[in-house]
Amino acid sequence: MLLYFITCISFFLFLKSLLLKPLPSWATEMRLLPPLFSQELSVRTISKLFRNRFWLGFVCQIPARMSLVRKSLTSRVENVEESHDMSVLDLPELALDCILERLPPSALCQMVAVCRSLRERCVNDHLWERHMKQKWGSVIGPAAYREWKWHVASKRSVGGLKHGRQRGLMRFLSLRWPLQWTRPKVDANNSPKQRSSLPVDSIMNWYLAIDSGNFCFPAQVYNRENGHVGFMLSCYDAEISYDPRTDTFQARYPPHGRRADARECGIPWERLRAPPIDASPHDLHVSECLNDLYPGDHIEIQWRRNKEFPYGWWYGVVGHLESCNGSENYCRCHNSDTVVLEFNHYTPGSRWRQTTVSRKDHREEGNEADGFYGGIRKIKSEAEIAIWKRLWPSEVLD
Q1: Which end of the chain lies in a sparser environment, N or C, as judged by fewer CB atoms within 10 Å?
Q2: Residue 215, Cβ neighbours under 10 Å: how many?
Q3: What whole-number distance in Å separates Cα of residue 175 and Cα of residue 151?
Q4: Is the CB of residue 349 less than 8 Å from the CB of residue 310?
Q5: Cβ atoms of residues 44 and 4 within 8 Å
Q6: Which domain of life is it from (predicted)?
Q7: pLDDT tens digit string along 324-355?
Q8: 31-45, 100-114, 303-317: range with highest mean pLDDT
Q9: Which helix (H) or strand (E) holds 219?
Q10: Is the confidence at residue 170, as pLDDT, over 80?
Q11: Domain boundary among 211, 226, 260
């Protein structure tokens, strides 16, 4: 009994000393011990531990054990945090849109294969309009867009677009970016049918169809047939397709009368343009600029060899009448009913050097020997004028 009393007094004195001293760092970790441990640590157990020489070792082991518990819990928390790292989809809508808008077409195609949410964003037309305009804007016009719509509608009408066209597009994507399209997906919501579905009439589909060379579209070619002398400083309509291997174009010109259609390969970008006037090459252009033509103005005029041929656009300038000496102070050519058109890349005296048209009643004029002149359009853009000057022949033509 005396021993028990002495033991209790010693324990209370020990607790009092703990209250006067700051707690060690491991004391805060005592809350991590299970409740069973605190229940078993009774007064009788404490008295026995005080008599036991291993008590000191037990007390020293508590901080080490608690440190292990803390490290284990900390590692588990870190693993949970790592498994919940922020992804691209967690970004705000505006930030994600800004990122996608700065991606090139190849990267957008790769993002399409990631998950359904990114696919719905990356095939959006507003992302591809800029890429379409930036790469194909100089050669694509309203006629090309109508051709694409007709192409999509014709495929839908026969029922082959849903399977054939999409399989062709997915095959094209898998060839250019094989790893992204063959890698298994971990998104449980993405079924194979959902992953392969792309809007067939989207701008993305149109862009990829042109970029792969699978879609032909109408455009115009400067100096057709590799700069043939008979077509210098002219621009003719043709069916164009892109060659991604050489970054050039192929052209098929419509047949001229009994002549079969002509073909040309390796056409560089600078020899192509979108048609400035949305009309058939067989239609006569209505000239609305005749009253605004002055000497020195740059023009394009329709010309064709005979009635069976389509028109081509030929470059020229407005000249002075024979009765005018060319002086700016005394020139009255713009008041005349006759407009002189000059093609200065031909030698003086050549039958192709000059022609005249009526300012008031201009229609198709010409004959089978010299060809037929059609409508006139005034060139107001300095960029267009610079293109014609760049194509100027190195030698004067006869």
Answers
A1: N
A2: 19
A3: 23
A4: no
A5: no
A6: Eukaryota
A7: 988 888 899 999 999 999 999 999 999 999 99
A8: 303-317
A9: strand 217-222
A10: no
A11: 211
DSSP letters of 174-205? HHHSHHHHHSPP--TT--HHHHH---TTSHHH
Please state, in angstroms and rounded to a whole number, the distance separating the CA atoms of residues 59 and 27. 11
In a domain, 79, yes or no: no
Q: Residue 244 to residues 41, 176, 215, 247: CA-CA distances in angstroms? A: 81, 11, 12, 5
pTM: 0.69
Ranges assigned E (strand) in 228-382 = 234-243, 248-253, 262-267, 272-273, 298-304, 312-318, 338-342, 354-358, 365-367, 371-378
Domain presence at residue 253: no
Beta bridge partners of 250: 241
128: tokens are: 């591809």
Last residue of a domain, one of 211, 230, 265: 211
List Cβ<8 Å contacts ≥24 apart for 43-50: 43/8, 43/11, 46/7, 46/11, 47/4, 47/7, 47/8, 47/11, 50/7, 50/10, 50/11
3-state secondary structure of 371: strand
List Cα–Cα distances, 365 to 207, 341, 350, 362, in angstroms.
41, 13, 18, 8
Residue 221 CB neighbours (<10 A): 23
Select from 245, 246, 243, 249 the least CA-distant residue to 226. 249
Q: Is 315 found in the same domain as 369? A: yes
Three-state secondary-structure class, residue 374: strand
How wide is the angle at C-alpha 231 spanned by C-alphas 226 and 234, nearest 5°?
105
How far apart, in whole angstroms, are the C-alpha atoms of residue 261 and residue 238? 10
Closest by Cα among 309, 297, 236 to 267: 236
Q: Examine the domain organization and report whether 202 and 296 are in the same domain.
A: no
Cβ atoms within 10 Å of 211's Cβ, excluding its own: 18
- Looking at the 3D structure of the chain, how many domains does it have? 3
CA dist 158 and 200 (Å) reads 14
Helix (H, G, I), strand (E, B) or coil at 59: helix
Q: Are residues 135 and 197 in the same domain?
A: yes
Supply the range of the domain harboring residue 21. Answer: 2-73
**Mean of the per-residue pLDDT values for the chain?**
77
Q: Which amino acid is at 275?
A: P
Q: How large is the greatest C-alpha to C-alpha distance in the chain, in angstroms?
A: 145
pLDDT at 372 over 90: yes
Dig out the tokens for 230 from the structure: 């008979």
